[in-house]
Amino acid sequence: MPASNELQLIEGPPLRAVLRAPAVPRPSPRPLLCFLHGHGEAAPMEIEAALTLHGPLHPQAPRDLLDRFLVLAPQLPVPGDIWHRHADEVLALAEQVGRQHGAASSPRYLCGFSFGGNGVFDLAMRQPEAWSALWSVDPTRPPDPAMPQPAWLSIGDRVRRREAEFLSKLRSRPAGDGPNGDRVHLDQRQDHVESARLAFADRRIYEWLLSRAR
Q: Would you give the DSSP letter of residue 85?
């Protein structure tokens, strides 16, 4: 299926992806927000259905805030907790999109859900200079304490099972009503899927990412 009018299909190499690049001009190039999907959204699931199921391309995400970003969502060729194997390919794709849209020197943000949330942590450690800030939604593994970037953790039932370990390694504090430091966590007391639905519709988190530009 071809991508919709709002989304552009990138056939690769290095990875297939969809891109949301608003046509409305801005005074400066948009930063890039790269989304890493979870287990069930890898190929062979149809790409647009997969990458709009959760994440910033879901219909409930705040469209006016999304218009401030280039939103890139690559798709893994097979399911699994394997984003670390594709770290170089994700970065190459992000750099390619940045060059094409005049945003090569703009901030890049990395977000993900479930196994994609694990991928956020994995890529952050492998590419510390590439990503300005991180947003991990209910990952299944805690981060490396040495991870250098600002990070927002959205908690669902996967994190809640090991919450003390996650928060100790992340060294975060609870979110308030707005930008609230470089290490932040938020638990809206939902299960795995509902935590993603609420997180990617939450304006505060997109605004927090934008406040962490570097």
A: G
